[in-house]
Structures are given as structure tokens and as C-alpha cells.
Amino acid sequence: MAGNGSQCPSRRNDNTKTIASQTPQPTPREQRTAGNLPLPVPKVRSGTATRGVGGTVHNVANYIIHENFNQNNFDNDIALLQVDTPFQFSDSVQPISLPAQGEATPVGTQAVVSGWGVTVNGGTEYSSDLLYITVNIYSDSDCNDKYYADYGGLFVGDFCAGHAEGGIDACQGDSGGPLAAGGKLVGIVSWGDQCALPDRHRGVHTGQLL
């Protein structure tokens, strides 16, 4: 989460699966894409709000990359990971529902995004604590207008969330973090052009969850 100068896995109800984002250009929120996932796939840590400390570490037994993931333009930036030991639900580990197929989140909806990313635009140090912010869902037309000149617009299923006035935003290192609204996982942090700048490109989220 970043200011302009100043993950917590998201799961289906099956307690062995977690949804993950890949990382697109131009400004990756992480440093991996579906096309170059390291083998073995990294472990998943659940049940802690401190980066790399505490909770339970799960080995990844299997993973499925979206069948239409495009390595060249990073369309369909999503994968499904299956861990070898089930998540144990508790006060700090809970599943989250998915929207119905074809269900869109209304423009103007306030959603919560969380992650351990950098806290300053252009920064290099990740947060040690899980942070969250509230952002607004923007229309596809508004988002396409912002991204068209430099990137040719958005792909089908992608959408933007943020603040027109800037100030707070998801940022590098937040890729794969959940965007939640109304008790549902409505998106996954994917990419963006810098972070938290006023009247600039808002953060892009993958909405292809099914």
C-alpha cells in the first residue's frame, strides 16, 4: 500500500486452494508472471499479519495457470494454487466467497485491498505488516481513457480501483492481494502505472475469477 510521497490468502471455500495473481508489466506489483513461475512454486503462509513470520506455512502441491494467460501482454493474470495441507480456519484464517459468474461490481462501490507492498511510490522496501486501504471501483470507460494512450486500454475482465485525488493505492509488492467488497473477492491486485498519484492511472485488478 502506497502514498504519493509520504495477500492473507484469498480462497475459495475449499480449504486446500488459494487464488494467486501473476505479475504484468508495465509496472509490476510483484516480480513473477504466470509464464515464469519458479519451480517448485513458492510456499503459502496463512494466519499471520506479519510478513514472513508466524502463522502456518503450506507447501504448494499443484497449481493451475489460467488457460488463456498471455505471456506477452499478461492478459488473464491469475492462477489457482492447491496446498498439500488444508487451511485451518480460525479468527485469523477465513475463506471468502466469490461473486456469481458474470456478476459485476457496481461502479462507485467501495472495496478493501490489502497487501505487504511498498508504502511509497517508487519505494523498494516492503511493509513488514499487512496493510489495507479502501478504494473506489471505477468504470471501464474511465479506466480505458486513462490507459489507452500508453497501453492500449484494458483487457476484458480487468478493471480499475483507486482514488482520483491519489494519496493511497496498491503498489509494488501487493500483487495477488485481495480486493474485497460485500464479503466477496471481487478482484486481485494485478498491475498499474506508478502508485497513488493524483489524476493518473488507477490500479488495475484482475476480475476473471471463474
UniProtKB/TrEMBL annotation:
Region (Disordered): 1-52
Alphabetic keyword roster: Disulfide bond
GO biological process: proteolysis
Biased composition (Polar residues): 1-24
An annotated Gene Ontology molecular function: serine-type endopeptidase activity
Domain Peptidase S1 residue range list: 1-200
InterPro entries noted in UniProt: Peptidase_S1_PA (IPR009003), Peptidase_S1_PA_chymotrypsin (IPR043504), Peptidase_S1A (IPR001314), Trypsin_dom (IPR001254), TRYPSIN_SER (IPR033116)
Family per similarity comment: Belongs to the peptidase S1 family. CLIP subfamily.
Name of protein: (California timema) hypothetical protein
Species: Timema californicum
